[in-house]
Amino acid sequence: MSEVLLQVNNLKKYFPIHGGVLQRTVGHVKAVDDVSFHINKGETFGLVGESGCGKSTIGRTILRLHEKTSGEVLYKGTDLHSLSKKQLRAMRPKLQIVFQDPYSSLNPRIKIGDAIGEALLDHGIYNSRKEVREIVLETMKICGLSSYHIDRYPHEFSGGQRQRIGIARSLILNPDFIVADEPVSALDVSIQAQVINLLQDLQQTKQLTYMFISHDLSVIQHLCTQVGVMYLGSMAELAPRDELFRNPLHPYTKALLSAIPVPDPTYKRDRIVLQGDIPSPANPPSGCKFHTRCPIATDRCKQEVPAFRDMGNKHYVACHLV
Ligand code: SF4
């Protein structure tokens, strides 16, 4: 039996919208709206969807970089959102994040060796600078960085190397679980493959569990064991990778899959082009949130929220017509 590392139950994250002279709360952006799933130890859980669908907010709310509005995030059975600041700080080393743009989180005046090692000193795990330097060098090595890089500054590195620095920073505290938030989206395709290979190698050697956030289904298909498809703050479909790609059920998933480029130029796939823009999460459509763009929507879809139903084979979908 697989061991559940992370369980997310009915998670909501609403951001208040302030307006008027008194800056009162006049509404909410429902960035994450009643989402549930779990991630088994050693798994890579992929979260996919268009930008603005709430993927990154879920990742950040899981790690408590955002406070939740309601729901639970259980890590090894402990609700992270019920921990005191001190308890959360003690838990932090086990839960890390890799950002899309590591450069923005690096101080241009701090050498990358110090940037990678600062969490060790901060958490009091290693006390002497010499000890920190040794472990930083070891971590840099497994992330494909050379020892002479340790005294260089962020601007001296390429995009791919900066992402390796971001991965080294997340790895230095020996985590169990890493949220990788679009870690390869800003990189050239050839560099993307190197960083993905690095993440896969590290998963093997360090027994890591990943939540991999991406808008790119090809990357998700290559890397993930389970996939959740998000639309406007809600989970539209959730299934094991092969099941989802072989047998997509939700019209939104079908549209996303139809847009994946096929390497064989003789093979013609019918592309499903969605009409209109993604609606605002501050004012989501009634009933099924996808009904304004769904090619097969009915009147029922405009009024009734579809339940997230178990279709067998660990496959879940929120659609009236499935
Ligand atoms: Fe489309 Fe209706 Fe299914 Fe929503 S519930 S995805 S609108 S068919």
Question: If you average the pLDDT, what whole number results?
Answer: 92
H/I helix tally: 10
Q: What small-molecule ligands were found?
A: iron/sulfur cluster
> Per the principal axes of the C-alpha atoms, what is the gross shape?
globular
Helix content: 25-40%
Which structural class matches the secondary elements? alpha/beta
Description:
The strands form two sheets. Strands 6-7-8-3-9-10-12-11 form an eight-stranded mixed beta sheet, with helices on both faces. Strands 2-1-4-5 form a four-stranded antiparallel beta sheet. By secondary structure, it is α/β, with parallel strands linked by helices. The radius of gyration is 21 Å and the shape is globular. 38% of the residues are buried. β1 (4-19) and β2 form a beta hairpin. The chain has helices at residues 55-62, 85-91, 112-122, 129-142, 159-171, 189-206, 217-223, 241-246, 251-258, 299-303, and strands at residues 4-19, 24-40, 44-48, 70-75, 78-79, 95-98, 177-181, 209-214, 226-231, 234-240, 309-310, 316-317. Helix content is 30%, strand content 24%. It is built from ten helices and twelve strands. The mean pLDDT is 92. The two termini are 29 Å apart. Iron/sulfur cluster (SF4) is lined by residues 250-251, 288, 290-291, 294, 296-297, 301, 306, 319-321.
Question: Which features does this protein show?
Answer:
322 residues; alpha/beta; eight-stranded mixed sheet; 10 helices; 30% helix; globular; binds iron/sulfur cluster
